TrEMBL record:
Residues 431-448 have a biased composition (Acidic residues). This is Zn-dependent protease. InterPro entries: CAXX_Prtase_1 (IPR027057), Peptidase_M48 (IPR001915), Peptidase_M48_N (IPR032456). Binds 1 zinc ion per subunit. It comes from Haloquadratum walsbyi J07HQW2. GO terms for molecular function: metal ion binding; metalloendopeptidase activity. Its cofactor is Zn(2+). Keywords: Hydrolase, Membrane, Metal-binding, Metalloprotease, Protease, Transmembrane, Transmembrane helix, Zinc. Residues 57-206 form the CAAX prenyl protease 1 N-terminal domain.
Length: 448
């Protein structure tokens, strides 16, 4: 058991405090959303085509509660490992293996990845085969889930050990410059991932068919021409193999850039809405959003590496946590401080993403000659994914990177005119639609 000291108390207070904050935001968001959804009953039934709005609330409660339980159990596990001295004991054992510090650190990283995957597995199984199944989203078998889990574990082990190994080697080889070189390694990996992920990793999980002929291809060519692009890589992904959730995303740069449309999205939307979603995704490239996000991420990582350098150079961390004087041991403790700190800054960093989503919505409306196609697409995405369109402003600020659906629709109609008949579906006066919140980052929610 660690002795009580200011650093130990500080880390505990930080981790528990942030968890309490997130739990409070979850509770406020559920209560707020419940009232807002019931007040907007008519719009949800007619605009989102949901016959029973209570299903939105039930789905939100189920996923939120499971996520928060997972977070609290994870926090208790981490604090138990650190505060009982188990982490210090593990590092002591590694230093006696006869391996060099870099190999010791790689073993620690690999163990952490494996333990994390094992810990998260029961929660993911429950979400997939209980919650998602209950609401009609799950399409995968347990064998497919197990296959995905094993592949994800292997990829996680390879990626983290390679990246961590390079950073640890740099620490040992160039101790005076390792924060700068480590930062450059992470930036390089971020760029490489944008090329490697769509071509190597994603095909391990899904099939991607290029859209090369038929009515959908003609619609794709049409929107590319309107948007001022040459027709490049547009793929349909077999998302329905695992889930009925719909989505679309843009990834890559240069010749590796591509737009991916879920087959579920193609099935759920009409041609105009698909074109609007495609135009929205193209805007992220045309407006250089990818590079701007990378620049912000690089600044964040620079600050994190500077903090980690200070942590590993300070003798107090080794004393407070009973650690042997090996840099990798202090790095892990430093990351425990840095993670929650970055989370507290998310209301600031999310604002860039909010502005990018508004720009992309505007581009889609301009490309499609009005707001109708994009607003229909947004309503379909929200309805098909049982997304609560009314997040609490405080919750949205911390957790979300897209404005709420009603806010986006209202803004599109104000900025670009409502070239649809006035459907009277957006007459709710809920204050959440006026906030700079965003669409939840959960994979089940739309990225468009």
């Amino acid at each position: 058991m660690l002795s009580i000291s200011t650093p130990v108390i500080g880390l505990t207070v930080l981790l528990v405090g942030v968890q309490v904050l997130y739990s409070a935001l979850d509770a406020i968001n559920i209560s707020y959303g419940t009232t807002a959804v019931r007040d907007a009953d008519t719009w949800i039934r007619e605009g989102l085509n949901i016959s029973d709005p209570e299903r939105i609330l039930s789905y939100q409660r189920s996923t939120t509660i499971l996520s928060r339980i997972q977070s609290w159990v994870g926090l208790a596990t981490v604090l138990g490992v650190v505060l009982t001295g188990a982490y210090a004991g593990l590092v002591q054992t590694l230093t006696k293996t006869g391996f060099g510090p870099s190999v010791q650190g790689i073993l620690l990283i690999a163990g952490a990845v494996f333990a994390s995957r094992l810990f998260n597995a029961p929660f993911d199984i429950y979400k997939t085969f209980v919650i998602e199944d209950r609401f009609g989203f799950n399409n995968q078998s347990i064998m497919l889930w197990l296959r995905d889990w094993i592949i994800g574990l292997v990829i996680g082990l390879i990626a983290t050990t390679l990246i961590g190994g390079v950073v640890l080697w740099v620490i040992q080889a160039v101790p005076s410059l390792w924060p700068v070189l480590g930062w450059l390694v992470v930036i390089g990996v971020s760029l490489a991932t944008m090329v490697i992920y769509p071509r190597v990793i994603a095909p391990l999980f899904n099939d991607f068919e290029p859209i090369e002929s038929g009515a959908l291809h003609d619609a794709v060519e049409d929107v590319f021409e309107r948007a001022g692009f040459d027709c490049e890589q547009i793929y349909e992904m077999d998302a329905s193999r695992r889930s009925s959730h719909s989505n679309a995303y843009f990834i890559g740069f240069g010749r590796a850039k591509r737009v991916v449309l879920f087959d579920t999205l193609i099935e759920q939307m009409n041609t105009d809405s698909i074109q609007a979603v495609l135009a929205h995704e193209l805007a992220h490239w045309k407006r250089a959003h990818i590079w701007k996000q990378l620049a912000v991420s690089a600044v964040q990582m620079g600050v994190v590496f500077a903090f980690l350098w200070w942590i590993t150079s300070s003798g107090w961390v080794y004393t407070a946590f009973n650690l042997p004087s090996v840099t990798y041991a202090a790095l892990a403790i430093g990351l425990l401080y840095a993670g929650p700190a970055l989370g507290l800054l998310s209301p600031v960093t999310n604002r860039l993403s909010l502005s990018h989503e508004r720009e992309a919505d505007d581009f889609a409306a301009e490309t499609m000659g009005g707001s109708r196609a994009m607003t229909q697409a947004l309503q379909t995405l929200a309805g098909e994914n049982l997304q609560n369109p009314f997040p609490h402003p405080a919750y949205a600020a911390f957790h979300m990177t897209h404005p709420p659906i009603p806010t986006r629709i209202r803004r599109l109609r104000e900025q670009h005119g409502n070239n649809d008949a006035d459907d009277g579906l957006l007459n709710t006066d809920d204050s959440s639609t006026e906030t700079d919140g965003d669409t939840d980052d959960d994979p089940a929610t739309p990225a468009a």
